[in-house]
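Purpose: get a first structural picture of the assembly so the mutagenesis plan has something to point at.
Setup: three entries, given in the order below. No constraints added.
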Amino acid sequence: MMKAGSRLEKVIKAGQFALTVEVGPPRGANPEDLLRKAKELKDIADGYNVTDNQTAVVRMSSIAGAKLLLDAGCEPIMQMTCRDRNRIALQSDLLGAWALGMRNCLCISGDHQIASASGKLKGHPGSKNVFDVDSIQLISILKDMRDNGVLESGDPIAKPTPFFIGAAWTPMAPPEEFRVLRLLKKVEAGADFIQTQAIFDMKRFASAVESARDMGLADRTAILAGIIVPKSARMLEYMNANVPGVEVPESLIKRMASSSNQKEEGYRITVELIQAAREIPGVKGVHLQAIESEEVLPGIVEAAGLLPRPQV
Amino acid sequence: MKKEDQSALTPRIIVIYCHNAVLSPEELREGGYLEEGFEVYFAALPCSSKIEPSYLLKIIADGADGVVVVACPEGHCRFIVGNNRAEKRINYTRKLLDSAGMGAERLVLERGEGLTVKDFLEMAGGRLEILKILGPNPMRGAEK
Amino acid sequence: MIIAEWKPLPELVEKLKGHKRALIVGCATCVAECAAGGEHEVETLAPLLRMAMQKEGHDLTVLTKTLERQCEWEFVEQLAELAPNADAIVSLACGIGVQALAERFPEMSVYPGVNTTSLAIRQEPGLWLARCAACGDCALGETFGFCSVARCAKSLSNGPCGGTRKEGKCEIDENLDCVWYQIYERASARGKVEQLIKVRRPRNWSNSGHGGPKRMVREDLRS
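Result (structure tokens, whole complex):
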């Protein structure tokens, strides 16, 4: 019995290795960029994440971006953070999103608005916080709207809104021992699929997935390993030092640093990571991110032997 | 009361010293010296940590061009941490002086032991150049 | 206690430019405890303000007084004789005190000299840490004594988020402990981690400022 009937759900249900990719919406209102990316990435993935003001930087909204992708033939996975909207706005947006054709939604806490002031950007660090509900409560809200046709208040909605519900998992952030228990909470709340924070150490990830399997979680939810395409040794060093939950083995940084073409080495590393993820029991797919360079994804996906995508 | 002619003002420097830092406390007397081109006044404290930002600011607001606080060398405070506290308070007060546009350099911390009047006069005289750059204290002659 | 910090001096100078005599009023309770508005700070601000104003070419006479508390009408009344000697009041109390003075002396310009920021504890001399968000729905009994509203940057009820740094610090500030890390450690030390597995429902924010300006009444205490 399908929960939402999205392609991602079908692929996972069919027992096929799923592939999702991330598309960043533009810092402007021009749909052209997004449509160009949709064209480049058509048919290479089972779902296309559209971020929701990532790092609290104002971008075209996830719902709008997702609708553009949908119309261009790429099934979107819209993202919702808890930072900017209260439960009223979140539920309202979910009703609207469903009406526009969205069927996948990733529920995350969201970066604090302080993160928006970085690099050249002034951002909006002075804006007011919302965080009315957290990501796990948001998952529950989607589940209730789908399975019980009610809002958080208990008030009924005219028609249930079946979403395939996603959540994030950062298995290696402290306190590590609690992370699999928090995954349990997300699954209990209703998470159908999981996209992890970027993994560079598949061995460590494998043991985290094993803990999840021991708790029966790998069957109740589909874990997709998050993989970021590395561009340079410096990028790896930066992520290792600054992105919580991301650990890059020293050997990988050295390997990148000593290569003659770091970009291409990055593609090779990505393909290896995908292949390593495939071999972990309990991992049902990968979630690929090529930050600000989505054009490299088709080549990588092909080289990883993930094309063509399965018929479902 | 008319403001004194700013250009004719002799720089006025207050030296606040820890009496444990001097060689012979009797040698120093409260009150002023008129040295080559500047007035200097001395004030003794049982420990440099007795200073407070409010006192230092009041001294400058009441017309002192510069203040030198003399503390014992690091590790030599007879009250163990007193001179450390003095340093922190002076740093804080310097920031406040800057925020008011008065210039942090009006206030400075000096350290030493076995000091004499001659040392103090040298310390005070050493401030003259920077005080010249800062200009006379705008509070000189202004109503309290 | 309520904590506050000095407003930037230029802000005060700007407000006081049109005035000749300012009365700086301190408060000997919360703001004294956080070294922002007690007698000490009043006596520090007074000469500083005089100098800052003089620098801008303004002669400002500064009077000072520190009250026990500015949130108590009987103490506020102690200003009645002094207030008419000034044409502006700068209150170093929290927002409550500033407004009490403004209410008692409606004909006077009353300016805040501090920014009130939080309900905090003085952890050690010179260090104050936020502890309470006045959310009106205290769940400290469920989080092992650590407030996840005031001490979590995202006020998560089911934390931690994926942003906890190494050494258990918060994603947004390496000096801040991740409170959910602390909650987990405490639960773990007590052998009660399973209490953290239950999914906490969305909070009811309406008993806090989110529900409208608070009006609390006790009929048994009214005259």
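Chain C touches chain B through 18 residues (CB under 8 Å).
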